[in-house]
Amino acid sequence: MRAYFQSPEYYRANLNRWNNLTLESIMAKYPDKLTWEVVHQLLNDLTELQFGLPLDLYTSTFYVNKVVTICQGHPACRLAITDPPEEPGQLMNKLRSSITIYEKE
């Protein structure tokens, strides 16, 4: 059973979904949500997909790198990704603060 569900094809499919996930795609999917809600949804999607990645990619560093890459270019995330923390939880808090500051400006 494990060989069927955790085959190389399974991991490749999840990695492909991981690589194709963008902030713009989530914003397009949920146009009525606020920026933080969209980023929160994105983080949830990444966390879900992370469980289906090969074990060598199932790291906090890989996750944080993906979040930083996704958020590059979005002005609301600028403060969080300028000097991102190494831990996902800290990055989420910093993203929330960055977005709040951006929206209040």
Essential attributes:
105 residues, mainly alpha, 70% helix
Largest sheet: none
Query: Can you give the mean pLDDT?
Result: 90
In helices, the fraction of residues equals over 70%
Shape: globular
What integer value in Å does the Rg equal? 15 Å
Distance between the termini: 53 Å
Strand content: under 5%
Tell me about this structure:
By secondary structure, the protein is an all-alpha fold. The protein has one domain. Helices cover 70% and strands 0% of the residues. It is built from seven helices and no strands. The chain has helices at residues 2-5, 8-20, 23-29, 35-50, 60-71, 78-82, 88-104. Helix 4 packs antiparallel against helix 7. The mean pLDDT is 90.
Q: In terms of topology, how is this protein built?
A:
Blueprint: H1 2-5, H2 8-20, H3 23-29, H4 35-50, H5 60-71, H6 78-82, H7 88-104
Helix pairs in contact: 4-7
In short:
This protein is mainly α.
